[in-house]
Design brief:
Chain lengths: 637, 486
């Protein structure tokens, strides 16, 4: 026991270094960016590498039972409340630390190559470091308010990075949209915190979770609280109805899409719910809502992915869809499974985005897959790693996505056959649109301009090395969570077991597992063959424009017109209301009233002026009359 | 005694400045305001050493003044006054410095009026006698009237007249209120302590509430008493607008806490649900108007109405988080709004335009300015770790405790605030310039000093709100205790 405490004392300093260094990196690269030039890329990367080493050090020196707090300072105190600025180190936060700093570091290195020619090179890295700082606060906080700092902070960095090329106003629109939609979710989060403060008198996880056991399952307040927290998660993790910002967010540079809009920030909602699983377990109603929203998002987004021709847009809808899978897992109470998918998804989706970045880099900024094709030969490493990413997300056996997705499906099956069927359908669609992208990009004939063809080249080592590392992780990452049918220990479940205890859920039978895995695998291989046949052997191309599509295709191509719907129902009425308030109420009604009062004052003044005749005799007369009246009043009263 | 020094020093400065001419005036004004700030910091430090014993007011100065009616010269500092004095004296040097590198006609009179204004504001915040407070309240109106009238924009005459009459009408109602309180109080005086401990009967408080509320609601301003404000902010010279929005409107909020809640508690109990509803509706109303505003100064004016509406709502919730939040937020709003109007001034100085749609592309030519502007914008949309967040969080929680739905309504400000602020920032600063031949030199030295100071203050109070919370907590608890009797 004493050994344990001593051990934890030794870990406090590295734990404090973890968020501190990216913050320091932010200040250095933003203040001295001009002088540092391209050195700022390496400094920023170092500011993430050291925290990764610290996280790994903490990981290796702790076990699954670890849980200690790192106080920094007292932040807000009023009345009986005191909200500290403090960190919590336990397996869940350590896992997230490793993901954020590890993948963050790889993407920093990648960006050195990718952003090399950009005039905002140093600025890019300062934003990236700031993002990592906030993301680390989000996962390290020991209370909801520190998480909220990180939560809004990553939203800010997302805003800054989506609008990184600020000369382009449509990019700025996308950035603003992301920030505002996130803010809608944040209001939910904020109100959720108020309910927590009222119920538990604290925002610290420790206090809340220990007191939560006194609350009966399904109590009204806990249902409202969890729903509000889920609204926050919807915004950040792009779930229906707050998902439309994420595809637009692809306006940012590709490393940003990989880091923020695939691997880390968008999984914050899953982290929030997993962290609060004690509360969510008390609210079955909320869990059902989460399941429905998750499954619906997974399906709808994946269908849109079928019709998109921008390589990054496909990946964006795929991210929305995969996040839906994770929420489906949360909805059935399989919190650890959701975290497992967060982990594998971080590997393969970061890989896919970075691979697409390498392609875009080689194509001179072109993102339309109809103008690509045959890149296999010119970009062998990118091709190979992208293929691995595609196999992983499609759930081909032994690759990372296979195990985590299978686990989600099995968990949902126990809960509901209908949702299970929808998710199976979704995962089939997933492999269709992913292989569509893969074949159209890398196989067949090159369809771009001659100039582009001339410039095709494999990316530099700073880009390919992160790709290779992520490809390896996407291949072996799944072995952290081997299912019981393989008679192996589920390492991740064991590690997270103390933070997120297993529910007494009935597992699916081994036979069912075999059938599920076998049939899904068979389907994936059929799809690969069919997609190859359709696009490559028969040389079918996606439609050139929406006029030639059938109505259903056009509906999907236009993303079900959800943006247009939001515009008509929310944006336009508010703008109209703004004009009405100003012109009708402010200028007309209120000022009319004010002016009427002024007019009244002037008229009274005019009336009073008539009495001021200047005739002394009249004044004396008035005085005497007044005194008589006053005296008379004295007598009467 | 120290309070008296804080009150008198700007008055002396005001007289001394009349004897100066040209650039010497503004340098001397800055010097005086910095000395004043130095004394304030000293007082702040002394105050912290004796936090526990807060009542009666510290560093006080009491002298018989007029025996009939019984008015005493009674000044002092409790925690709430202390915060307001810090706000005033922290902002004054920044406001003065922001006028460097601008041509101001007859600077000696301009800065003399500013110093007079400072003295009057301090007077409002430290008076513990009702009539003395009232005199300072009215006194504060005179210098700002002349500043707006003589140094303002094209429409200054009609706009300042509207402003003057609006607020004067409110003050008149308050004066009636005070005279009534004088007679109904068995001790027949205006002493704050006596008024707090000898409430007039509930039947009178019913209508007395409105006399005071109208005066304060106009000054704050709370919708629908606000129509003087956007035009005045637009027409007044930038420093005048900073004084008005940064400090002067806090007179109204401060007065709610000092002269309404503890003195007319049953009137407040009777009407505060209506007052809060008005404030909460005003938050949404003003925010929505701000979205479509085409003039930066007017946009900031409406956003200010929304922000102070939230502060007023938090005050009327009468709980510790609401009132403590209002203290933090009054300071934060003062700092941020001065920053916002200064940024608008910098843009106007270089482009002769404050039109949201008509500029653009400033980020390309003046990246430093764009960064500081971003920081101020983020603070005013209440991003965590900036000063705007702590206050807004506490105020909304205060509101939540009063009524959950009001918190939702007030909470819309975090969405709408982002909408209008980011829209403005995007159109003005980002993109490519829509102006022909725009020349936009990056920051001058005085502008840089002001903006860096504001940025430092934004993060200091965002990270260490305790500096304010610890000062005002005992006084706020006392106010709550007195406001919730019966």
């Amino acid at each position: 026991m004493t050994e344990n405490i001593l051990n934890e004392m030794n870990l406090i300093k590295p734990a404090m270094l973890i968020p501190l260094l990216p913050l320091l990196g932010f200040f250095i690269t933003s203040l001295f960016g001009k002088q540092l030039k391209h050195a700022s890329g390496w400094i920023a990367s170092l500011a993430i590498l050291v925290p990764f080493i610290c996280s790994a050090y903490i990981f290796m020196n702790t076990d699954a039972a670890t849980s200690f707090e790192v106080p920094i300072f007292d932040w807000i105190a009023f009345g009986k409340f005191s909200i500290p600025f403090a960190f919590l180190i336990d397996p869940l936060s350590i896992l997230m630390l490793l993901v954020v700093t590890g993948i963050g570091f790889l993407i920093h290195i990648y960006s050195i190559g990718y952003m090399h020619h950009d005039e905002g090179f140093s600025r890019f890295f300062s934003y990236l470091n700031l993002f990592v700082f906030f993301m680390l606060l989000l996962v390290m906080g020991n209370n909801y308010l520190v998480m909220f700092i990180g939560w809004e902070g990553v939203g800010l960095c997302s805003y800054l990075l989506i609008g990184f090329w600020f000369k382009n106003q449509s990019y700025n629109d996308a950035a603003k949209k992301a920030f505002i939609m996130n803010r809608i979710g944040d209001l939910g989060f904020l109100l959720g915190m108020f309910f927590l403060m009222m119920m538990f008198g604290s925002l610290e996880y420790k206090t809340i979770f220990s007191k939560a056991s006194e609350i009966p399952v399904g109590a009204g307040l806990i249902v409202i609280t969890t729903l509000l927290l889920f609204v926050g998660a919807m915004g950040k993790s792009a779930q229906i109805p707050l998902y439309t910002w994420l595809p637009d967010a692809m306006a940012g540079p590709t490393p940003v899409s990989a880091l923020i809009h695939a691997a880390t920030m968008v999984t914050a909602g899953i982290y929030l719910i997993t962290r609060s699983h004690v509360l969510f377990a008390l609210a079955p109603f909320t869990s059902d809502i989460i399941l429905i929203v998750g499954v619906a998002t997974a399906l709808f987004a994946s269908i849109i992915g079928l019709k998109q021709n921008d390589i990054k847009k496909v990946l964006a809808y795929s991210t929305v869809s995969q996040l839906g899978f994770m929420f489906a897992a949360l909805g059935v109470g399989a919190y650890k499974t959701a975290m497992f998918h967060v982990l594998t998804h971080a590997f393969f989706k970061a890989l896919l985005f970075l691979g697409s970045g390498s392609v875009i880099h080689a194509m001179g900024g072109e993102q339309d897959i109809r103008k690509m094709g045959g890149l296999r030969k010119a970009l062998p490493i990118t091709n190979f790693t992208f293929l691995i990413g595609t196999l992983a997300i499609s759930g081909v056996p032994l690759f990372a996505g296979f195990f985590s997705k299978d686990e989600i499906l099995a968990n949902v099956f126990v809960h509901s056959n209908l949702f299970f069927a929808v998710l199976v359908l979704t995962s089939i669609i997933t492999s269709i649109y992913m292989f569509r992208v893969y074949f159209l990009t890398f196989s067949g004939e090159f369809r771009g301009t001659d100039e582009q063809k001339h410039h095709l080249h494999e990316s530099p080592a700073t880009i390919t090395i992160p790709l290779i590392i992520l490809a390896v992780l996407s291949t072996v990452g799944g072995f952290l969570g081997l299912p019981s049918v393989f008679h192996a220990t589920h390492k991740l479940n064991a590690y997270l077991g103390n933070v997120v205890p297993s529910l007494s859920e009935h597992e699916v039978s081994h036979n069912f597992e075999y059938i599920l895995m076998g049939s899904l695998t068979a389907i994936v291989f059929i799809i690969i063959f069919a997609v190859f046949n359709y696009f490559i052997s028969k040389k079918n191309m996606p439609e050139a424009n929406e006029e030639v599509m059938n109505p259903v295709g056009r509906f999907i191509y236009n993303k079900y017109y959800v943006d247009e719907f939001y515009n008509a129902v929310f944006v336009r009425p508010v703008m109209l209301l703004s004009d009405i308030f100003l012109v009708l109420i402010d200028k007309l009604i209120i000022d009319l009233f004010v002016n009427a009062l002024a007019w009244l004052a002037i008229s009274l003044g005019k009336g009073a002026r008539l009495i001021q005749t200047g005739n002394t005799g009249f004044y004396v007369f008035a005085m005497v009359i007044s005194m008589i009246v006053l005296l008379a009043l004295q007598f009467i009263i | 005694m120290l309070t008296l020094v804080l009150l008198i020093l700007p008055l002396i400065a005001s007289l001394v400045l009349l004897a100066t001419r040209g650039n010497a005036s503004r340098s001397l004004a800055l010097l005086f305001s910095l000395v004043q700030l130095g004394i304030t910091l000293y007082v702040w430090n002394e105050f912290r050493n004796t936090l526990a014993i807060d009542l009666p007011a510290k560093f006080g100065f009491v002298k018989e003044w007029i025996s009939r009616p019984n008015i005493s010269f009674n000044i002092g500092l409790d925690g709430i006054s202390m915060v307001m004095v810090i706000l005033t004296n922290l902002l004054l040097p920044l406001i003065i410095l922001s006028g460097f590198n601008r041509t101001i006609d007859r600077p000696h009179i301009f800065y003399s009026l500013m110093m007079l204004m400072q003295s009057a504001l301090i007077g409002v915040f430290v008076s513990f006698d009702g009539l003395l407070y009232y005199i300072f309240w009215e006194l504060a109106l005179i210098p700002i009237y002349f500043i707006a009238f003589n140094w303002g924009g094209v429409n200054r005459k009609s706009v300042t007249l509207k402003f003057f009459i609006y607020t004067l009408a409110g003050s008149l109602l308050m004066l009636f209120g005070f005279i009534f309180l004088y007679w109904s109080n068995p001790l027949h005086n205006f002493n704050w302590n006596d008024l707090v401990n000898n409430h007039t009967c509930g039947c009178n408080q019913t209508w007395l509430f409105w006399l005071f509320f109208a005066a304060f609601a106009i000054k704050i301003p709370i919708v629908p008493f606000h129509t003087w404000q956007p035009d005045t902010y637009k027409e007044a010279p930038t420093q005048g607008t900073m004084l008005l929005s940064g400090i002067m409107l806090k007179m109204g909020l401060y007065s709610l806490i000092r002269w309404l809640l503890p003195i007319i508690p049953s009137g407040v109990m009777e009407w505060n649900s209506l007052a809060i509803a008005l404030c909460a509706a005003g938050i949404v109303y003003a925010s929505i108007i701000a979205i479509m505003q085409q003039d930066m100064k007017k946009l900031f004016a409406y956003s200010s109405i929304a922000h102070v509406g939230l502060i007023a709502a938090g005050i009327f919730a009468i709980n510790v988080q609401g009132l403590q939040g209002s203290m933090v937020q009054m300071l934060a709003h003062g700092i941020n709004v001065v920053g916002l109007f200064f940024c608008a001034d910098i843009i106007f100085h270089r482009t002769q335009s404050n039109h949201v749609e008509g500029i653009g592309g400033i980020r390309l030519v003046a990246p430093q300015f764009a960064t500081y502007f971003m920081i101020v914008v983020l603070a005013s949309v209440a991003l965590p770790l900036t000063n705007g967040f702590v206050g807004e969080f506490m105020l909304l929680y205060g509101l939540y405790e009063y009524n959950h739905w009001l918190a939702v309504t007030g909470g819309l400000t975090i969405i709408l605030g982002a909408v209008y602020m980011l829209r403005m920032y995007q159109k003005v600063i980002l993109g490519e310039s829509v102006m022909e031949n725009m020349s936009f030199p990056d920051l001058l030295w005085n502008e840089k000093v002001v903006l860096i100071s504001i940025a430092v203050l934004i993060f200091f109070f965002g990270l260490y709100p305790k500096a304010i919370l610890e000062l005002s907590e005992p006084a706020v608890n006392f106010i709550i205790e007195k406001s919730l009797i019966k």
